Amino acid sequence: MRRLDGRDGGGQPLRTALALSLVTGEPFEMTNVRGNRSTPGLKAQHVACVSVAAAVSNADVEGGEVGASTLRFSPGDVRTDPVEAAVGTAGSATLVCETVLPAAVAVDAPLRLTVTGGTDVRWSPPADYLRYVKRPLCSMFGVEFGVSVPRRGFYPAGGGTLSLRVNPAEPTPLALDRRSEPDELRVYSVESDSLADAAVADRQVEGVRDALAEAGVDLPVRAAVSSVESDSPGSVVVVVARGGDGDERGGDGSESVVAGFDAYGERGTPAEAVGSRAAAAFLDWLRGDAPVDRHMADQLLVWVALAGGRLRIPAVTDHVRTNLDVIRSFGYDVTLRAAGDGDGGAGTGAGPGADSGTGAIVESDGGR
To answer: Following DSSP, what letter does each residue of 288-355 receive, concatenated?
Structure first.
């Protein structure tokens, strides 16, 4: 049994451990789960991740309840019967989906998952990030999945529904160490019906456009604006940087660009400021060399371990370090080094600890 310390890194080490346990069939024990958080132990969304992983793998679980600080997870055979999970209130449905995506390498038939809870809530990827950033990016290295959002769920009530279909996959090594420049931005701006009279979604797009104009960035912007039914009022904007056709390698050997940046509406914050915040994250990324955004960098580490290859990340964060610790604990040989001039970067930035510049390279031969 793998022995893990979950004190650092929040819920990501837990999700990574669950994913790798599904793939390898190896049990683990994690102590001090989320130990450095103000409210340590499992929260509702983490319990949902455990429950879904257990259902998919017929696992025996000890300590899988809210507040538990120690979890023992012993998987059985992975199965593909449809799985349903209720996170409760506005716990993140997208993070539950993230937990089971690596099961693509362990199934021989499509895996179907339906999650109710928060589809668009702070501290987690919005549903449109999963659909329009993660999905096409994973497709580049042979991992295919589908996502639908029958109903949106905002904080605090949640009540949204997210449906996921994961196809069996034999991923190819990642080649995400060089970046083409983006040639367009796509903006997905969503508001609850209760905010439609205030044109919140349209104003979020205006905020994106104004921030780009102020920064002197002249890129085509294609916007999709929608009003949706939801149990709680809320809004979200996702800015997607794209280059090439977005789903195949660029002609110079670099990958086509698919990177995403998001912001959530908040009471008292003008919608234009929400859009500007998402645009600011894009502009920060644009000053560096990494082909992926900093949140995607953390999510792709497990795929570097499983499939091999090279990934340039914009920054070496605490999340990256703790996530790599868990991956290595399962026996995967993944290396991390500062990116240099010979790695194809063109930035002038501040090194692997910064959000811009050359960042760092994560690489692996794949497997253990």
So the answer is: S--SS-HHHHHHHHHHHHHH-EEEEES---HHHHHHHHHHHHTT--EEEEE--GGGT-------TTSS
Per-residue pLDDT reduced to its tens digit, 261-319: 999 999 999 999 999 999 999 999 999 989 999 999 999 999 999 999 999 999 898 88
Residues 6+ apart with CB under 8 A from 162: 93, 94, 97, 114, 115, 116, 117, 119, 127, 130, 147, 148, 149
Q: What are phi and psi of 273, to 5 degrees?
A: -70, -30
Annotated binding site: 295-299
Rounded to whole angstroms, the Cα distance separating 138 from 146 reads 11
Q: Is 319 a catalytic residue?
A: yes
Token couple for 59:
């696992």
Round to whole Å and give the CA distance between 138 and 304.
11
| Average confidence (pLDDT) over 56-60 | 95
Q: Which helix (H) or strand (E) holds 21?
A: helix 12-24
Phi, psi of 255 (to 5 degrees): -85, 145
Residues at the annotated binding site for ATP?
A: 295-299
pTM of the predicted model, to two decimals? Answer: 0.92
Cis upstream peptide for 270 (omega within 30°): no
Give residues with Cβ within 8 angstroms of 132, minimum separation 6: 186, 188, 238, 240, 260
Letter for the amino acid at 226? Answer: S
Q: How far apart are CA 115 and CA 170, in angstroms?
A: 25
Q: Are 25 and 73 in contact (CB under 8 A)?
A: no
* Residue listed under structure tokens 């399962």: 330
Structure tokens at 73: 């997870």
Catalytic option among 319, 332, 339, 359 = 319
On the 0-12 / 13-18 / 19+ scale of CB atoms within 10 A, 270 is middle
- Render pLDDT for 191-200 as a digit per residue (tens, 0 to 9): 999 999 999 9
Nearest to 228 by CA among 289, 170, 137, 149: 149
Flag whether pLDDT at 343 surpasses 80.
Answer: no
pLDDT computed for residue 101 by the predictor: 96
First and final C-alpha spacing in the chain: 16
Partnered with residue 227 across adjacent β-strands are: 191
